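Encode chain A's predicted structure.
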Amino acid sequence: MKKSSKCWLLRTAALLAGVLALNGLALGATQYVITNDDMPYPFLTGISVYTVEAGGMLSSPQQIKTLGFGIAGGFFATNRMSVLNSGGQQCVYASSAATGEIVGVAINTLTVGGNATGSPTDLGTTNGIGMVMNGQYLYASFTDVNTIGTFAVQSGCSLSFINDVSVAGLAGGVINGMAIHGNMLIATYTDGSIQSFNISAGAPVSNGDEQYSTATLNSMDATYPNSIDITSDGHYAIFGDTSTSVVVEVSDISSGQLTPTVLYTGNKSINSSNIMLSPDETVLYVVNTQGASVTAFFFNAATGALSPGCKSKTVSGQSANWSYLAGLGFPSQTGNGGGVYVAEYGSTSAVALLSLTVNGQTCSMQEVKGSPFTDPNSLGLLSIGTFPPRSF
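Encoded structure for chain A:
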C-alpha cells in the first residue's frame, strides 16, 4: 500500500511539473526584467533582457535587436513594453516609436517572432507608442495621430493588424496611458480627460463616459492623470497624475463606466506619473518621476481607499547619471512584490531596485546594495517589464 501511494505521488508530481512547464511556470523557471531600449536613429533599437538572480539582483543584459528606431523619450505612461503569459504563449512585445512597429519576442528562445504595423500614419515619433493587451488582442496608442490600433495575437508571438480608431481628450488632448481589464480599456489624455471603452468585440467602442478628472478640475488644469492601474476584480481604476506634488485618483468602475474620481494627495515629493498595484493589492507604488523617489500607499481593495505608507530616500545617481524615474516592475509576483524595479531615464540609463518592508500599517523602502543595474543599450529608458508578469 505504501509503495502504491508513493508511485501515485511520483506520477502526480511528474504530471504537474509537465503541466507547469507547458505553461512556462516550471519550478525554477527563469525570471527576467526586460527593457525597451528605445534607441533613436541612426542606432537600431532593441530590448535588453536581464536574468533575475538571488535577492532580485540582475545579470548583465542580453540585447535582442528589433531592427526599428525609437525616440529615446516621450510620455511617462506610454508603456512601450507588454508581456504575455497566456494560453501557452510567452511573449514580450516592444514598440519602435519612430518606425511605427510593434515587435514580438518569444520568451523561451529570446528570438523575434514577428513584427506588425498599423495604418501608414500610425506613428509615435513625438511621444511614443503605448501598449496593453489580453490573450486575444494587443492595443497600441499612436501618439502622433491619436489612434488606438487593435492587433490580433497570433502564434509565435506575431500580430495581425485589424484596424484603428481615432480618439482625443475633451479639449483635444493626446492619448497618454492605457490599462485593460476584462472588456474595458481605459485611457488618459494630456488635457486631463479620462475615458473608457468596451472591447468585447475587439476594437474599442467608447462607453460614453469621457470626463475631466477631479484633480484636473480642482487644479484648473495644473494636474492631469497619466498612468492607470485596475484592481484584479475590475472594481476600481487608479490614476497616477503628473503634478507638482503627489496626486493619485480612484474611480469606481464597477458599473462598467468611469465615475468621478476620488482624490488623494501628498506634498512630500514631486510628480506621480507612474503607478503600479502590488500583486496582493495591499500597496500602491507611486514613482515620483521628478522627485527622485518612490512612494508607497496602503490600498484597501474592498473600498478603493488609500492611506499613507512610506517614501524612499532619493534614488542614487540623479542628475549625475539620470534625469527622471519612470516605469516599474516587481521582484516578486506574490505578496506586496517585495519592492520595485524602476527605470532610470538618462544618457546613462539603468534599472534601480528598491526593497519594501511592511510592519502592520507602517513601512520602509530603500534602494538595495548593488543597485542600479546599467542598461548600456539605452540612451533614454522609460519602460520595463517582468516575466512572468503580474497575474492581473
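The mean pLDDT is 92.
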